[in-house]
Amino acid sequence: MATVYDLKSRFQDLLRPIVRALARARITANQVTLAALALSVIAGLAIALWPAAGLPLALLPLVLFLRMALNAMDGMLAREHHQQSALGAVLNELGDVVSDLALYLPFALVPGVSPMAVVSLCLLAVISEMTGVVGIQIGASRRYDGPLGKSDRAVLFGTLGLLLGIGLIGPVFANWVLAVALLPAALTIFNRARKALAEVREGRP
């Protein structure tokens, strides 16, 4: 099932000159990971502190794009410039989950937006990422299957943030979108578990 994640390789090609410059400047992958986390926390705090203001929500797509770029660059620094480490793996996985929660949970404070829908979707997002990591534990690869992976969630919340922020949609419409998104979020968990198990079975002698 196609997801935004499938565009990752093309995006990385565009970022490669910047990554080389970072490596020459002795910027490490872990520093980039922490920068992405800090950006997410600051942006999420802005929404939480001013939930009725349009600007923090409207800026969310830009924040998510920068976060996506930083996440791609930290991986490229690690793989292509020999910076892989156990600490980096831990920071990468935890940073993604914490960043998602920092950016998306504040939607529950936006007037009229359903806290239950927001919290439910965030909970499913955490479970889906955990399921992806469990693939490694059982001998499969880290699973990134959709239909609502990290990049797809970014598109969903970024679009909602922009439209809510500039007043093109109201919270009632946003609640319907969030409710509908629960189904692909749950399907993502199922797909990741199913494909990890299938990968293990196919790898057995």
Automatic annotation (TrEMBL):
GO terms for biological process: phospholipid biosynthetic process. GO terms for cellular component: membrane. The chain crosses the membrane at residues 32-52, 116-140, 152-170. It holds the Pfam family CDP-OH_P_transf. One of its GO terms (molecular function) is phosphotransferase activity, for other substituted phosphate groups. It comes from Stappia indica. The keyword Membrane applies. This is CDP-alcohol phosphatidyltransferase family protein. Keywords: Membrane, Transferase, Transmembrane, Transmembrane helix.
